[in-house]
Fold these 2 entries.
Entry 1:
Amino acid sequence: MNYLSKGYVTIEELKEVLGELPSEERLRQRPVAIPECPQEIPCTPCKEICPTEAVLMENPNAIPLVDYEKCVGCSLCVQICPGLAFFMIHYKGDKARVTMPHELLPVPEIGEEVILLNRIGEEVGKGKVVLVIPREKSKGDTPVITVEMPIELAWDVRAVKVVRE
Ligand code: SF4
Ligand code: SF4
């Protein structure tokens, strides 16, 4: 598929890979995990760590899918994924909260305004950090942050840039 040469997935490609995205009703209930891992590679930490068996993989090489109803939004898959390929989305009113790995320094602080980046690193807006899991508390090697943003950006933003004077 094209994403193997260009290095990122578009939302249209992601829909093809996942089959279906969570409904708006489900996105409003509680955070739901979204795997963006479209290559068949021998890797299973996301499946092994999930406490509710919501991560579905037919075999260790399979592309991970999520049973959105079983997912309780614990973020362990986001924390453990070595490929930085798991995210969570939660709709709240006219905002969305996106939980993502953040490997760059500095790690933003709760309440900090950050620049929102899409899958190819373009700046698409500003958001506010509402939760930080620092590296020492993460189950993996990567800090995890949750960023509140305009709801229409939830399926585009997959990283942030921290700008401090
Ligand atoms: S957020 Fe938690 S419950 Fe949901 S898929 Fe990830 S590990 Fe499983
Ligand atoms: S842990 Fe990450 S890289 Fe490995 S299969 Fe799961 S989503 Fe893909």
Entry 2:
Amino acid sequence: MGTKEKEWVRDADAHPWLFKEARAKRGYVRGEDWAECLVHALAGLIGVPSACVCPAIRDGRRGVLSRSVLSGDERLEHGNELLTAANPKYDKTNARNLGYTVSAVNTALAPVEAPPCMPLCMTGFETWSGYLMLDAWVSGCDRHHENWAAIRTVHTMRLAPSFDHGNALGFQVPERQLNSLASSDNIERWSKKGVNRYFRGKPGPVTLAAEALNLCAPRAAKYWLGRLEDVSEDHVQEMLQAPPDRILSEPRRNFIEKLLRTNRRRILDAIGPCAGRARPS
Ligand SMILES: Nc1ncnc2c1ncn2[C@@H]1O[C@H](COP(=O)(O)OP(=O)(O)OP(=O)(O)O)[C@@H](O)[C@H]1O
Ligand SMILES: [Mg+2]
């Protein structure tokens, strides 16, 4: 499943990890590997459960290892299968899908519980709304219907941790363009151009997050917005210092730092004042 070169390997405890190669264009390795690792760390700052990833090199190829979120007899049931179970007319083979809307996901996630690490009253959909808020924060536009899932056990279904975060943080912006994007205005313009082409109407990630959080109970929306508001810029800075300069250059660190600050403000401006109010009874 998916578009990148990948293979499953096992650690010393025989637990599976998925190696995903970072794609290269004309010999230049684009930064899906550092982007995926940084987003995993950023997800931790706002309490979004995400598959554990670490940078890896396999047969000389750069990539990431993503620790399987499954154990024992568990299996993943992807978004497209859940959407089809809720609406048999949903075309699960078509990723760019007119039936793929936030409210369809709300219905599809009705039988799906939140992961056990979430606050007690949080539902599966409310947790998923946090995944959309993460996307909006990191300019992630890849939340298609196979990039989220539920974990099915014999008796239960719970939302799987978020996964596949490589397409984020402007990993595709060439190094030479970073300086021209350095001003806050240019970064905001760049951020607003991002759309999620899989959802009906190709909305931007901030719009999607706002729509989802407005369908949540006010306490859940407030929880997510509070987590984002509480993020310490020092912690973000520390995370950006972790990759070596040859992987993450100084101009790119500056770009990402400003992008995260801009997106955080955009989310809080767009959602803050009215979050949770439009929830149906
Ligand atoms: N940590 C994980 N635990 C269990 N299954 C995983 C994990 N990471 C990925 N998978 C499975 O592997 C599939 C492919 O992985 P992933 O979505 O990360 O990359 P990709 O599909 O190649 O990227 P894209 O969606 O951009 O094409 C996922 O849809 C999911 O079924
Ligand atoms: Mg994927």
